[in-house]
Amino acid sequence: MYERAEARIDLGALRHNCANLRARLGPGVELCPVLKADGYGHGAAHCAPVVAASGADRIAVATAREAVRIRALVPDIPLLVLGALAPGEVELAVGTGTDIAVWEPGFIEALADRAAATGLTVGVHLKYDTGMGRLGCSDPEAVIEMARSIAASRSLSLEAVWTHFATADEPDPGFRDIQRDRLRELGSRIRQEHPRVMLHAANSAALIADPETHFDLVRPGVAVYGMDPFGVDPLEHDLVPVLSLHSYVASVKRLEPGMSVGYGRTWKADRPTSIATIPVGYGDGVRRALSNRGEVLISGRRYPVAGTISMDNLAVEIGLDPEVAVGDDVTLIGTQRDGRITAEEVARTLETINYEVTCGISPRVPRQGTGDPGTAEVPTAPVPGETA
Ligand SMILES: *Cc1c(COP(=O)(O)O)cnc(C)c1O
Prior knowledge:
This protein is α/β, with parallel strands linked by helices. The chain has eleven helices and 20 strands.
């Protein structure tokens, strides 16, 4: 370890997951991996070039700044901003040449004016809210009207009508089917007027669970990174985790009964034992809620977190005659010999989802590419995480 903490990004696994997802698609269906939030915390600098060289037809992000960042990394690939754009983001997005999500007549008008002023044509993806209840227009007649006004605009081009699932990760397909059928129904009406418009809906869970959700394009995020959209074991769907999180043993010390570890003295030795201190903490995104609950791997064995996780350090109990020495590698997420800690396991301990575990790894942790990037050009030195 040259770094106190490091997220290793297995680029071979990333390529494998892209191929896995692609193989589930029928001919002509576009693969549009989602690289928002710095590639779910994995680092866009590594992920964007590899995904682009692994069969992605487009890349989706959430914000205008993310589109600018991906454009700098991959000059040619079509981009799509999925999220709402604040007034100040519109100019940035238009200038980047990304497609933009729309669902509101006033915004469409302002966007058309902005595009006309720059002499550009902006591709728009008209969002139909079929049940997420968040962004998008839930009135099909209003969606049809907006499609007409976009088609009539000289500075906008109607690329797609799309929706987003609220429950695709749940075992009961009922509501997902309702949402899918709503898009299919409105889509066929819209296509009578605008035959070339694409339809899209599927996130990772829908992509895996129901081929009928694929339509013309799929938008997988979490599965691209080898995490399981259903929160169980990614290997069940032949997804290989891309990120592993590493640190090392900075100090080992003996404790007598009654001695405590960490802020607030929440953990006390009840027998003679030892503690290893690992220089990684909540400032790196190792959540404080793992205090006295999380585990780490050292030499393939699990050791429990002892005491409160602080900003820069955490401690684990390693026992009286520890097989642990200063300098040993520590794995917080990933595999080590026979040991394995998944982001899904950490999420369960934290009562959250795997998405939040990797997104939460802070920019302070350098991302180091490993494995075979294929034909993609990726950084060889570690890259800090990105906040914007
Ligand atoms: C984040 C996002 C996705 C990807 O979802 P996953 O569950 O990570 O596959 C797809 N579509 C939209 C609109 C999103 O915001």
